[in-house]
Design a protein that fits this description.
The protein has about 280 residues and is an alpha+beta fold. Helix content is about 45%, strand content about 20%. It folds into three domains: about 1-65, no CATH class; about 70-135, 5' to 3' exonuclease, C-terminal subdomain (DNA polymerase, domain 1, Orthogonal Bundle), CATH 1.10.150.20; about 140-285, Dna Ligase, domain 1, CATH 3.30.1490.100. The strands form two sheets. Strands 3, 4, 5, 6 and 7 form a five-stranded antiparallel sheet that branches. The chain has a two-stranded parallel sheet with strand order 1-2. The model has no long low-confidence stretch (mean pLDDT about 85).
Amino acid sequence: MELKGALRYHGVGPVRLGEVLRVRAVSRLGVDVRVGIGPSVTVAATASAQIAAPGGVLAVGPAQVAEWLGPLPVGALHGIGPSHAKVLGEYGLHCVGLLAAVPPATVQRLLGGKAGRLAADRARGVDPRPVILRALPASATVRCAFPRHTLDGAEVRAALLDLVVRLGLLLRRRGQAARGLTLSLRFAGDATWERTRRLVAASAHDDDLRLLAYQLMDAAALQRGRLTGLALKADDLVDAGLVAEQISLDTAREARLVTEQVSDRIRDKFGPRAIGPAAALRRAS
Protein backbone atom coordinates (compact mmCIF):
# COMPACT_ATOMS: atom_id res chain seq x y z
CA MET A 1 0.00 0.00 0.00
CA GLU A 2 1.03 3.62 -0.54
CA LEU A 3 1.88 5.29 2.78
CA LYS A 4 2.53 8.92 1.84
CA GLY A 5 -0.99 10.13 2.51
CA ALA A 6 -1.28 8.05 5.70
CA LEU A 7 2.01 9.46 7.02
CA ARG A 8 0.78 13.01 6.52
CA TYR A 9 -2.62 12.23 8.00
CA HIS A 10 -1.38 10.47 11.15
CA GLY A 11 1.76 12.53 11.60
CA VAL A 12 3.93 9.53 12.46
CA GLY A 13 6.89 7.77 10.86
CA PRO A 14 6.62 4.67 8.64
CA VAL A 15 7.84 2.26 11.33
CA ARG A 16 5.24 3.50 13.81
CA LEU A 17 2.51 3.20 11.17
CA GLY A 18 3.63 -0.34 10.39
CA GLU A 19 3.47 -1.24 14.08
CA VAL A 20 -0.07 0.14 14.32
CA LEU A 21 -1.08 -1.87 11.24
CA ARG A 22 0.35 -5.03 12.77
CA VAL A 23 -1.35 -4.51 16.14
CA ARG A 24 -4.71 -3.86 14.48
CA ALA A 25 -4.38 -6.98 12.33
CA VAL A 26 -3.78 -9.05 15.46
CA SER A 27 -6.58 -7.42 17.46
CA ARG A 28 -9.21 -7.36 14.72
CA LEU A 29 -8.44 -10.49 12.71
CA GLY A 30 -6.50 -12.60 15.18
CA VAL A 31 -3.52 -13.04 12.82
CA ASP A 32 -0.01 -11.65 12.90
CA VAL A 33 1.45 -10.02 9.77
CA ARG A 34 4.83 -9.13 8.33
CA VAL A 35 5.09 -5.47 7.35
CA GLY A 36 7.90 -4.55 4.97
CA ILE A 37 8.42 -0.84 4.27
CA GLY A 38 10.62 0.62 1.55
CA PRO A 39 10.86 3.26 -1.17
CA SER A 40 9.60 0.85 -3.85
CA VAL A 41 7.39 -2.20 -4.24
CA THR A 42 10.42 -4.46 -4.69
CA VAL A 43 12.23 -3.26 -1.57
CA ALA A 44 9.10 -3.40 0.59
CA ALA A 45 8.15 -6.89 -0.62
CA THR A 46 11.72 -8.16 -0.16
CA ALA A 47 11.81 -6.69 3.35
CA SER A 48 8.54 -8.36 4.37
CA ALA A 49 9.88 -11.75 3.24
CA GLN A 50 12.96 -11.32 5.48
CA ILE A 51 10.90 -10.97 8.66
CA ALA A 52 10.92 -14.08 10.82
CA ALA A 53 7.65 -15.73 11.85
CA PRO A 54 5.20 -14.98 13.27
CA GLY A 55 5.45 -11.33 12.23
CA GLY A 56 7.10 -7.97 12.63
CA VAL A 57 7.97 -4.67 10.98
CA LEU A 58 11.08 -3.99 8.87
CA ALA A 59 11.69 -0.60 7.25
CA VAL A 60 14.42 0.12 4.70
CA GLY A 61 15.04 3.80 4.03
CA PRO A 62 16.01 5.15 0.59
CA ALA A 63 19.62 5.70 1.68
CA GLN A 64 19.86 2.15 3.04
CA VAL A 65 18.64 0.25 -0.02
CA ALA A 66 21.99 -0.64 -1.62
CA GLU A 67 23.65 -1.57 1.68
CA TRP A 68 20.67 -3.65 2.83
CA LEU A 69 20.01 -5.47 -0.45
CA GLY A 70 23.69 -6.19 -1.17
CA PRO A 71 24.29 -9.23 1.12
CA LEU A 72 20.96 -10.91 0.36
CA PRO A 73 20.99 -14.01 -1.87
CA VAL A 74 19.61 -13.25 -5.34
CA GLY A 75 16.72 -15.63 -4.72
CA ALA A 76 15.54 -13.40 -1.86
CA LEU A 77 15.02 -10.42 -4.19
CA HIS A 78 11.35 -9.97 -4.94
CA GLY A 79 10.70 -10.90 -8.58
CA ILE A 80 13.65 -13.31 -8.93
CA GLY A 81 12.30 -16.85 -9.22
CA PRO A 82 14.17 -20.11 -8.54
CA SER A 83 15.07 -20.70 -12.19
CA HIS A 84 16.58 -17.22 -12.65
CA ALA A 85 18.40 -17.50 -9.31
CA LYS A 86 19.89 -20.78 -10.48
CA VAL A 87 21.13 -19.26 -13.74
CA LEU A 88 22.67 -16.29 -11.94
CA GLY A 89 24.31 -18.61 -9.42
CA GLU A 90 25.93 -20.60 -12.21
CA TYR A 91 27.72 -17.40 -13.24
CA GLY A 92 28.82 -16.62 -9.69
CA LEU A 93 26.14 -14.00 -9.01
CA HIS A 94 25.01 -15.38 -5.68
CA CYS A 95 24.06 -12.16 -3.91
CA VAL A 96 22.14 -9.04 -4.87
CA GLY A 97 25.21 -6.81 -4.51
CA LEU A 98 27.10 -8.78 -7.15
CA LEU A 99 24.08 -8.68 -9.46
CA ALA A 100 23.81 -4.90 -9.02
CA ALA A 101 27.50 -4.50 -9.99
CA VAL A 102 27.05 -6.30 -13.33
CA PRO A 103 26.14 -4.14 -16.37
CA PRO A 104 22.42 -4.48 -17.22
CA ALA A 105 23.29 -5.62 -20.77
CA THR A 106 25.17 -8.61 -19.33
CA VAL A 107 22.24 -9.57 -17.09
CA GLN A 108 19.94 -9.35 -20.12
CA ARG A 109 22.14 -11.79 -22.02
CA LEU A 110 21.92 -14.22 -19.10
CA LEU A 111 18.19 -13.99 -18.35
CA GLY A 112 16.71 -12.59 -21.53
CA GLY A 113 15.74 -9.05 -22.49
CA LYS A 114 12.83 -8.09 -20.21
CA ALA A 115 13.67 -10.43 -17.31
CA GLY A 116 17.30 -9.31 -17.32
CA ARG A 117 16.41 -5.62 -17.37
CA LEU A 118 13.97 -6.03 -14.47
CA ALA A 119 16.47 -8.06 -12.44
CA ALA A 120 19.23 -5.52 -12.97
CA ASP A 121 16.97 -2.61 -12.02
CA ARG A 122 15.54 -4.29 -8.93
CA ALA A 123 18.98 -5.30 -7.68
CA ARG A 124 19.70 -1.55 -7.57
CA GLY A 125 16.39 -0.84 -5.85
CA VAL A 126 14.91 0.70 -8.99
CA ASP A 127 11.21 -0.09 -9.36
CA PRO A 128 9.00 2.67 -10.80
CA ARG A 129 5.78 0.66 -10.54
CA PRO A 130 2.99 2.58 -8.81
CA VAL A 131 0.95 1.06 -6.01
CA ILE A 132 -2.36 -0.02 -7.56
CA LEU A 133 -5.40 -0.58 -5.37
CA ARG A 134 -6.86 -4.05 -5.73
CA ALA A 135 -10.58 -4.58 -5.99
CA LEU A 136 -12.11 -6.32 -2.98
CA PRO A 137 -13.02 -9.99 -3.59
CA ALA A 138 -16.50 -10.89 -4.76
CA SER A 139 -16.97 -13.48 -2.00
CA ALA A 140 -15.83 -14.24 1.54
CA THR A 141 -15.72 -17.62 3.28
CA VAL A 142 -15.33 -18.73 6.89
CA ARG A 143 -14.89 -22.35 7.95
CA CYS A 144 -14.77 -24.57 10.99
CA ALA A 145 -13.82 -28.19 11.51
CA PHE A 146 -15.08 -30.44 14.29
CA PRO A 147 -12.41 -32.33 16.23
CA ARG A 148 -14.56 -35.45 15.98
CA HIS A 149 -17.61 -36.60 14.05
CA THR A 150 -20.61 -34.85 15.57
CA LEU A 151 -24.31 -35.61 15.67
CA ASP A 152 -25.02 -32.97 18.30
CA GLY A 153 -27.53 -30.53 16.82
CA ALA A 154 -26.85 -27.90 19.48
CA GLU A 155 -23.09 -28.04 18.84
CA VAL A 156 -23.61 -27.74 15.08
CA ARG A 157 -25.98 -24.78 15.52
CA ALA A 158 -23.50 -23.08 17.87
CA ALA A 159 -20.71 -23.56 15.32
CA LEU A 160 -22.92 -22.12 12.58
CA LEU A 161 -23.74 -19.07 14.72
CA ASP A 162 -20.01 -18.56 15.34
CA LEU A 163 -19.43 -18.62 11.56
CA VAL A 164 -22.19 -16.05 11.08
CA VAL A 165 -20.57 -13.69 13.60
CA ARG A 166 -17.13 -14.12 12.01
CA LEU A 167 -18.48 -13.61 8.49
CA GLY A 168 -20.50 -10.53 9.43
CA LEU A 169 -17.48 -8.98 11.14
CA LEU A 170 -15.30 -9.71 8.10
CA LEU A 171 -17.80 -8.07 5.73
CA ARG A 172 -18.22 -5.00 7.90
CA ARG A 173 -14.45 -4.60 8.20
CA ARG A 174 -14.21 -4.67 4.40
CA GLY A 175 -17.13 -2.30 3.95
CA GLN A 176 -19.02 -4.91 1.94
CA ALA A 177 -22.47 -6.48 2.02
CA ALA A 178 -23.62 -9.89 0.76
CA ARG A 179 -26.51 -10.60 -1.57
CA GLY A 180 -26.44 -14.33 -0.97
CA LEU A 181 -25.13 -17.09 1.30
CA THR A 182 -23.82 -20.56 0.56
CA LEU A 183 -23.69 -23.21 3.29
CA SER A 184 -21.44 -26.22 2.78
CA LEU A 185 -21.50 -29.28 5.02
CA ARG A 186 -18.82 -31.95 5.09
CA PHE A 187 -19.66 -35.40 6.41
CA ALA A 188 -17.66 -38.41 7.52
CA GLY A 189 -16.52 -40.30 4.45
CA ASP A 190 -15.92 -37.00 2.57
CA ALA A 191 -19.53 -36.64 1.44
CA THR A 192 -20.63 -33.01 1.02
CA TRP A 193 -23.83 -30.98 0.84
CA GLU A 194 -24.14 -27.40 -0.43
CA ARG A 195 -27.00 -24.97 -0.89
CA THR A 196 -27.20 -21.27 -1.85
CA ARG A 197 -29.95 -18.75 -1.17
CA ARG A 198 -30.35 -15.03 -1.76
CA LEU A 199 -30.88 -12.45 0.94
CA VAL A 200 -33.95 -10.23 0.67
CA ALA A 201 -31.58 -7.25 0.54
CA ALA A 202 -27.81 -7.01 0.57
CA SER A 203 -26.58 -7.00 4.17
CA ALA A 204 -23.58 -7.51 6.44
CA HIS A 205 -25.62 -7.57 9.66
CA ASP A 206 -25.46 -10.65 11.88
CA ASP A 207 -29.25 -10.55 12.20
CA ASP A 208 -29.86 -11.06 8.47
CA LEU A 209 -27.00 -13.50 7.93
CA ARG A 210 -28.07 -15.64 10.89
CA LEU A 211 -31.68 -15.94 9.71
CA LEU A 212 -30.67 -17.12 6.24
CA ALA A 213 -27.91 -19.40 7.55
CA TYR A 214 -30.42 -21.13 9.85
CA GLN A 215 -32.82 -21.55 6.92
CA LEU A 216 -30.06 -23.18 4.91
CA MET A 217 -29.21 -25.52 7.79
CA ASP A 218 -32.87 -26.46 8.18
CA ALA A 219 -33.00 -27.23 4.44
CA ALA A 220 -30.23 -29.80 4.94
CA ALA A 221 -32.69 -31.82 7.03
CA LEU A 222 -29.93 -33.43 9.08
CA GLN A 223 -30.94 -36.55 10.95
CA ARG A 224 -28.06 -38.91 11.72
CA GLY A 225 -25.43 -37.43 9.44
CA ARG A 226 -22.02 -37.29 11.10
CA LEU A 227 -20.61 -33.84 10.38
CA THR A 228 -16.88 -33.09 10.21
CA GLY A 229 -16.99 -29.45 9.13
CA LEU A 230 -18.97 -26.39 8.02
CA ALA A 231 -18.29 -23.54 5.63
CA LEU A 232 -20.32 -20.37 5.17
CA LYS A 233 -19.69 -18.19 2.13
CA ALA A 234 -21.02 -14.70 1.42
CA ASP A 235 -21.72 -14.39 -2.31
CA ASP A 236 -22.16 -11.52 -4.76
CA LEU A 237 -20.58 -8.90 -2.50
CA VAL A 238 -21.25 -5.21 -3.06
CA ASP A 239 -20.00 -1.96 -1.57
CA ALA A 240 -21.89 -1.50 1.69
CA GLY A 241 -21.98 2.25 1.06
CA LEU A 242 -24.22 1.65 -1.95
CA VAL A 243 -26.79 -0.42 -0.05
CA ALA A 244 -29.97 1.49 0.76
CA GLU A 245 -30.94 1.21 4.43
CA GLN A 246 -34.70 0.85 4.92
CA ILE A 247 -36.36 2.72 7.76
CA SER A 248 -37.38 0.10 10.32
CA LEU A 249 -40.14 0.29 12.92
CA ASP A 250 -38.88 -2.90 14.53
CA THR A 251 -37.41 -1.59 17.78
CA ALA A 252 -36.00 -5.00 18.73
CA ARG A 253 -34.04 -5.22 15.47
CA GLU A 254 -32.79 -1.65 15.84
CA ALA A 255 -31.57 -2.51 19.34
CA ARG A 256 -29.70 -5.54 17.96
CA LEU A 257 -28.03 -3.39 15.30
CA VAL A 258 -26.89 -0.91 17.95
CA THR A 259 -25.54 -3.84 19.99
CA GLU A 260 -23.71 -5.06 16.89
CA GLN A 261 -21.97 -1.68 16.50
CA VAL A 262 -20.94 -1.68 20.16
CA SER A 263 -19.67 -5.26 19.86
CA ASP A 264 -17.57 -4.31 16.84
CA ARG A 265 -15.94 -1.49 18.81
CA ILE A 266 -15.19 -3.89 21.66
CA ARG A 267 -13.62 -6.35 19.19
CA ASP A 268 -11.54 -3.53 17.71
CA LYS A 269 -10.06 -2.86 21.12
CA PHE A 270 -9.84 -6.29 22.72
CA GLY A 271 -9.82 -8.76 19.82
CA PRO A 272 -12.36 -10.69 17.72
CA ARG A 273 -13.17 -13.17 20.52
CA ALA A 274 -13.73 -10.58 23.23
CA ILE A 275 -17.52 -10.63 22.85
CA GLY A 276 -20.14 -12.69 21.04
CA PRO A 277 -23.50 -14.45 21.33
CA ALA A 278 -23.85 -16.68 24.38
CA ALA A 279 -25.21 -19.49 22.19
CA ALA A 280 -21.91 -19.59 20.30
CA LEU A 281 -19.91 -20.12 23.50
CA ARG A 282 -20.70 -23.83 23.33
CA ARG A 283 -18.58 -23.98 20.20
CA ALA A 284 -15.87 -21.64 21.52
CA SER A 285 -15.45 -23.71 24.69
